[in-house]
Amino acid sequence: MKNSSRCGLSLPQTAIDIGNGISFLRTSDRLGWPNLHAALTEEQPHEARHDGIPSLWLAMVLSQADICRNLGCREEHMIMQPGRISIVGPKTPLAVRLKSTIRALHITLKDELFNEVASELFDGASTVEVVPTFGAENRCMEFLLRSVVETLHEPAHHSGLKIEYLSRALASAILGKYAVLRRPGIRADSRLSAHQTQRVQEYIREHLSSNISLNELAAVAGVNRAAFIRRFTGTLNTTPHQYLTRVRLKRSQDLLSESDLPLAQIASVCGFADHAHFTTVFKRALGIVPSAYRRQCS
Length: 298
Description:
Layout: H1 4-7, E1 22-27, E2 36-43, E3 46-50, E4 56-61, E5 65-71, E6 74-80, E7 85-88, E8 94-98, E9 102-109, H2 111-122, E10 127-130, E11 133-136, H3 139-152, H4 156-177, E12 179-182, H5 194-206, H6 214-221, H7 225-236, H8 240-258, H9 263-269, H10 275-286, H11 290-297
Antiparallel strand pairs: 1-2, 2-9, 3-8, 4-7, 4-9, 5-6, 5-8, 7-11, 10-12
């Protein structure tokens, strides 16, 4: 393998499944970027399994996309609108099933750079774990990633310095919103026990119609709020907020397909603030409004 500090990251060092229904419109292979690889793709429906690479992987869809992702034992499905972002941490195995033709941007961010930025932000006092993210809406990161797309079209001697700034900005954005700190000396207190997990999940199901707070869930688990967030995320690979939203959406899908309850009542039963909030969250996650989803199920 060539020295990446001189030649930059290349496709074989990424998680992209070359040749599996994927056409490359443009890549950074010949630009010599040392800490970030970018690939602009057009992709036909396909399935791919990734054993994990040593670097962090981001993907942003540039057209509407119907995607299933399996991470460990959890399968997620979403019809994503353009600009939605997914993130997978280093050495994380996953399987992806693409059900529509799409255009996308894939970014591989070198682990050394990510750790360097983390050390600068947190004074080297913590190790950092990336929380896997699927179809997130993040305007700041979308702007940075679209800037990477523009930079792909620039000459190598113009793009190098710019991409170094963008690489660090992306790492900082991920660390700020999609990462969990692991303090030295706090070992596998980073996970909930099976009993704690079961109690929290049962509490969520039984109180889904109410405004469940982090303090309530921490009390159910018998730990303080900060420890609960860390342990919950370490156990289920998702934040409490993301998990709660997923449970609310799943319950609403069941009610839409199996009952004739009015949408406002479903919103209330599932714990959404009101009908408008329910519609917004549902469409953001599934790419379709609840009434249209109900018609599809009938």
